[in-house]
């Protein structure tokens, strides 16, 4: 049987219910239960409030060690500690604790959250995934394709209403995503393909006649958690053993792929923040990461630009020190023209520039008895 939380914590949670979502309060309840368990392990048969009043900085540091012993991932430890810090700050406001106690739980003392590689799919797997979804006759595939094309969370897709498409005065269509995880509404611009996809979902036969919810676009009734499990099973069955970077393809990775593809296409961080429904730009930065493939392409592009600039500078300098009709100047102009106007493979262009540079050096070392003339007809 689960042990009841102390009255002080229950009073705190009751106040939080006035300004936080039920799911947030439920998270606080779970996180603070660990703090209660640790505090009750301190020797002495005294009430919770008394132990709280006798809390010191060294004791609170022991709580950090207590959490480390739980073998939790860094994200979970940070979440627990921030929940405890917020609760203790409430006790400070109530006059039960001194404010300097909170210094122990300052962000600089919390565990460092690891920086993982970006979670979006590679360009190849993204194209393959969309190809599979477009060509499949599975009735669930339009739902998954809509996730990829709009960047919605799976919970937002499940709760999306039938009348989710809105238009402005210029006949532009938008997907109105209702209040979700961040408790914010947002509008996502729709292309003709995505708009047709929504109409296809709306007009399709019920996915499950015995679990129909006519207010939802996807038509599936039941709690979000149970509908999620159903969709996840269908998604996994559809993709089979498909993986990316050695990890399975999940719904949330589609959201990361959506964000990264828009960033690569030139969408600003502020616009991306609005499209994803984030409140702070820091949250968007977790999605807007450069993939290794994109990083390599950008690097090679920059190297080619620098090499071309270097080659152009070498030829230009040489041309300025020779006569107007010197053969080496003709080669320098040819190289400059090659850089500016050619539409050839970069590797082939680089090879031609290298050969022209050698040829220019050979000609510049020669002495001619007359000027080189170009006759134009």
Provide structural commentary.
- Helices cover 57% and strands 4% of the residues.
- With 377 residues, the protein is mainly alpha-helical.
- The strands form two sheets. Strands 1-2-3 form a three-stranded antiparallel β-sheet.
- A hairpin with a 2-residue loop joins strand 4 and strand 5.
- Helix 7 packs antiparallel against helix 9, helix 12 crosses helix 13 and helix 14 runs parallel beside helix 16.
- The model has no long low-confidence stretch (mean pLDDT 82).
* Strand content bin: under 5%
Biggest β-sheet strands, sense, barrel:
3 strands, antiparallel
**Global geometry:** extended
Enumerate the strands of the largest sheet in spatial order, edge to edge or round the barrel: 1-2-3
Mean pLDDT: 82
Instruction: Give the total of beta strands.
Output: 5
Report the C-alpha radius of gyration, rounded: 32 Å
Distance between the termini: 100 Å
């Amino acid at each position: 049987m689960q042990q009841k939380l102390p009255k002080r914590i229950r009073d705190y949670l009751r106040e939080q219910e006035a300004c936080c979502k039920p799911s947030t309060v439920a998270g606080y309840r779970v996180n603070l239960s660990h703090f209660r368990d640790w505090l009750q392990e301190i020797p002495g048969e005294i009430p919770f409030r008394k132990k709280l009043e006798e809390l010191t900085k060294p004791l609170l540091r022991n709580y950090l060690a207590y959490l480390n012993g739980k073998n939790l991932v860094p994200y979970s430890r940070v979440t627990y500690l921030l929940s405890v810090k917020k609760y203790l700050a409430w006790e400070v406001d109530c006059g039960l604790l001194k404010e300097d106690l909170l210094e122990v739980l300052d962000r600089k003392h919390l565990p460092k959250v690891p920086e993982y590689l970006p979670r979006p799919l590679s360009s190849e797997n993204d194209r393959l995934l969309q190809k599979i979804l477009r060509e499949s006759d599975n009735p669930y595939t339009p739902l998954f394709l809509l996730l990829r094309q709009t960047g919605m969370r799976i919970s937002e897709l499940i709760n999306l209403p039938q009348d989710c498409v809105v238009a402005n005065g210029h006949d532009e269509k938008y997907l109105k995503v209702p209040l979700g995880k961040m408790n914010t509404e947002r509008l996502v611009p729709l292309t003709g393909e995505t708009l047709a996809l929504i109409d296809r979902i709306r007009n399709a036969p019920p996915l499950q006649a015995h679990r129909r919810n006519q207010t939802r676009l996807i038509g599936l009734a039941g709690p979000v958690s149970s509908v999620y499990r159903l969709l996840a099973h269908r998604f996994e069955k559809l993709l089979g053993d498909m993986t990316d970077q050695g990890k399975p393809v999940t719904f949330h990775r589609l959201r990361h792929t959506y964000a990264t593809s828009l960033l690569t296409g030139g969408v600003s961080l502020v616009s991306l923040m609005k499209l994803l429904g984030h409140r702070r730009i820091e949250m968007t930065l977790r999605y807007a990461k450069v993939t290794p493939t994109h990083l390599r392409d950008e690097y090679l592009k920059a190297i080619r630009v620098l090499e071309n600039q270097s080659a152009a500078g070498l030829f230009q300098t040489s041309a300025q020190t020779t006569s107007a009709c010197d053969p080496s100047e003709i080669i320098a102009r040819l190289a400059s023209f090659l850089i500016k106007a050619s539409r050839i493979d970069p590797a082939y262009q680089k090879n031609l520039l290298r050969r022209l540079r050698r040829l220019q050096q050979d000609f510049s070392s020669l002495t001619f008895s007359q000027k080189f003339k170009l006759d134009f007809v």
